[in-house]
Design a protein that fits this description.
Elements (H helix, E strand, L loop, with lengths): L1 H18 L8 E2 L5 H18 L4 E5 L5 E6 L6 H16 L3 H10 L16 E6 L2 E9 L3 H13 L1
Helix pairs in contact: 2-5
């Protein structure tokens, strides 16, 4: 049932994106997200993940990609720890979602595969305030589509 709900949310998001012009990317970087805000975001991610029956590794980074806060829910694969951090780091440093990076790599529009820590798989979303990237959220533990949908939902709140 949760897969159907997430699939519907992703389809609705995709349809909405197709109907609206592409949003302009953030113009630059802002002051880094604070620890308190990062921890609040992680707590919301844990609560929402539990409600959806998901188990996640959750990373919040500042614009440079350096870690501000991290949590790993019980029974999340250890590989998800590094992956969540890399998703957040990629999203912050390149000011784009990792789902967008994944689509661009697959379509041949982006060939940046050698940057250290660069990950092109959904689940990383920039945190933007006043048009500037102040950090990013990276999730890992479910499918790339589920990681993407949940990260986008959490950052939009």
């Amino acid at each position: 049932m949760r897969m159907i709900a997430l699939a519907c949310a992703i389809l609705m998001s995709t349809a909405a994106l197709a109907e609206t012009p592409a949003a302009s990317p953030p113009v630059g970087y802002g002051a880094p997200i604070g620890t308190s805000d990062a921890l609040t975001l992680i707590q919301r991610a844990i609560e929402r993940s539990r409600a959806l029956g998901l188990k996640m590794a959750i990373a919040v980074v500042e614009p440079s990609g350096e870690l501000v806060a991290f949590a790993r829910m019980d029974d999340v694969p250890y590989g998800s720890i590094e992956l969540a951090q890399k998703k957040a780091r990629t999203s912050a440093r390149f000011r784009l979602t990792t789902a967008s990076a994944q689509e661009r790599v697959q379509s041949g529009r982006l060939s940046l595969l050698s940057a250290e820590g660069f990950v092109a798989i959904g689940g990383g979303v920039p945190i933007v305030a006043n048009g500037r990237v102040i950090g990013a959220l990276g999730l890992s533990g479910a499918t790339a589509a589920e990681d993407t949908a949940l990260a986008a939902e959490l950052v939009a709140q």
